[in-house]
Each structure stands twice: as structure tokens, then as C-alpha cells.
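User: Please predict the structure of the protein below. I'd like the answer in C-alpha cell form so I can feed it into my own downstream comparison script.

Assistant: Understood. Taking the following sequence of 205 residues as input:
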Amino acid sequence: MDITLFPTKGNLILAKNTLALSSQGYELLDKKRNILVREMMERVDEAKSIQANIEAVYAAAYAALQRANIAVGIGHVQAVGHALPIEDSLVLMSRSVMGSEIPMVTYTQTPLTPSYGFYSTTSSLDEACVHFRKVKELSICLAEVETAVYRLAVNIKKTQKRANALKNVTIPRYQQITASIQSVLEEKEREEFTRLKVIKRQKSM
């Protein structure tokens, strides 16, 4: 609505309707922001828990890898690594949380079957495989959670920006327009009432 519109009852109704819609929009955006923040904080706590676990698992995995390198040789460990099958069981889906596409990664855990012979290897290599399998599983979970946190944070920022625009710009503007038009119309009504009283008094003389 243009602030230069004439102060008429029609424009007053239009201004009041716009103000009501803006206020309702702000309330909805505020609720949406609160839901997104709550969802993000849950994911942040989950990410912290995974990160705390993954550091210990990584340390154990690299320690086991170092022992395997010493026991059977780096070249042999690299050859075993190249022989491992490629992970292709990941399925990426998503769900919507207030307009944010949150990733959902499905991982099919298969039985751990060695892809190398036991004659030329030691138990240290088996131990390294077990630890790095745990690393893979935690990395998948962490990637899913951190991506969700990032997307939620972006949506929260956009929602906050829109809510601030309504609260600090649009709503005060239409409050001022409504008050201004209403004041002018009330002044016109008073003038009209006074004019009618004068005409009535003149006719009664």
C-alpha cells in the first residue's frame, strides 16, 4: 500500500487488513524460527556426541594401522586396502522440517568379511579393519548431522531476516498509516458534525 493514498475508509480498511496480515506473518515466522532453532540445537548436541566418539575411534584406528604397517609392511597394507570393495550401500534421502531439506542417510551394515588371505597377514591388520569400519560408520552419521545443522542454520537466518523486516519495517509502517488515516477521518467526521449542527441551528432560526 502506498503511503500517499488518500485518507478514505476504503484505504483504512486496506491498511488494517495489511497490518493484520503482517502481524500474523510475523507470528508464524517467529514460531517457525523457534522450531528450527530447537531442531538445530538437538542436532548440534548429537554432532558433539559423535565428534567426541569419533576422535577416540580415529586414534584407535590409526594406532592399529601403525601396528599393521610394522607387522606386515606398508606396501602389503596398501595392497590390502586397494582390494577392499567400494562402499555402495549408502542411500541418501531427505525430509522437510519447516522448509529445510534435512538429509537422511541409510547405511546397510554388511558382515565384516576379510578380502585378504590369513597366511601373509597378522591379527593387527584385522584389528585395523574393525576400527576403520567404526570410523566409516561414525563419519556417515557425522556428515548427515553436520549437513542438517548447516541447512537449518541457513533457513534460520533467512527466517530471522524476514521476521525482522516485518517487525521493524512493515508493521510499524502500517501502524503509522492506519493511525494517520484514522486521525484524518475522525477529524473530517468532527468537522462534518459541526457543520451539520450549524446548518440545523440556522434552519431553526
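That's the full C-alpha cell string. The beta strands are 90-97, 100-107.
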